[in-house]
Amino acid sequence: MQPRNIAVKRVLVPTDFSEISLHALEYAAHLARIEDAEIVLLHVVESYPQNTGLDFRFDLTEIIERGIQDKFREIQQQNPSLAGVRLRSQVTVGKIYSEIDRIAAEEQVRLIVMGTHGVSGITNIGKYIIGSNAYRTIQNAPCPIITLRQRPPSFAIRKLLVPLDSTPESTQKIDVAIRWARYFKAKIQLLAITAFFEELVVDVRDVTRRVHEVEKQLNELGLDYDAHIVRHTAPSESVLEFAEKTQSDLIIIVTGQESALSELLFGSSARNIISESPVPVMSINIKKFRVEELES
């Protein structure tokens, strides 16, 4: 039985008014129109003492907010994709990642859609900083986050790429993937990855067993899927190569592994996928989000 919706009634879209953040808004508007959801458009002003070290003797927030609200109105007027979509805006002051997570919790949003700036042409250190910044938001978010590094060629969701590994948390995103696949009539692509470093600490047969368990679940639900098991020295590269080769529309990953070892081994792969993927990535923090919340 096809679900009536994907249980997203309010979507938070942080924006810095860059081109990629406007693409994220357009992507969110597509989902909002399908779900009849409301978009909360958020701009976070980092406080001036934090940015410059100067102690201003007057509050610039009101002046800044007027200009930002004007910009919000301009975006609504100039973006045809927002026609008919319920949208309201907020301006807050503080650290970007903490304000996004705070507003998400206060507004009880079920999805965050945000742009991440590209990493091409910068050093590995710069790439790590950018990945860590996005990842920091994801690590504390109370709901799934879809990140975009560039505008996808289509907003249609026909293929969901679901990477699996040896961690118990890896399969906890399956219920979300199933709900989205059933609603959008999309194909689930299971991609199990093993790497040399992983084979030193886990039994690779565990990965195969997890794949078969998920396959059984998908078979029972009558969902369209395929499954692949690959060995790669860099799991994130394998995911991104597969996504490009199969023209996946959305990659679904988990973050927030309980084990410090799991976070060490797989957390860096998640950061790389988030910061480098040309395909939208949904990150589900299993420490903060439970699939049961979709029904509440």
List the total number of helices: 10
In angstroms, what is the radius of gyration? 20 Å
Report the major sheet.
10 strands, mixed
Helix content: 40-55%
Question: Judging from the principal axes of the Cα atoms, what is the shape?
Answer: globular
Spell out the helices and strands N to C.
EHEHHEHEHEEHEHHEHEHE
Name the CATH superfamily assignment of the largest domain.
HUPs
Strand order of the largest sheet: 3-2-1-4-5-10-9-6-7-8
| Estimated share of beta-strand residues | 15-25%
Give the rounded overall mean pLDDT. 79
| Termini Cα gap | 19 Å
Q: Assign the CATH class of the largest domain.
A: Alpha Beta
CATH architecture of the largest domain, by name, is: 3-Layer(aba) Sandwich
Total strands: 10
Describe the structure.
Helix 4 (96-107) packs parallel to helix 5 (124-140) and helix 5 packs across helix 10 (260-276). Residues 49-54, 118-131 and 258-266 have low confidence and may be disordered. The protein has 296 residues and is α/β, with parallel strands linked by helices. 44% of the residues lie in helices and 21% in strands. It has two domains: 10-148, Rossmann fold; 159-287, 3-Layer(aba) Sandwich (Rossmann fold), CATH 3.40.50. A ten-stranded mixed beta sheet has the order 3-2-1-4-5-10-9-6-7-8, sandwiched between helices. The longest helix has 18 residues, at 61-78.
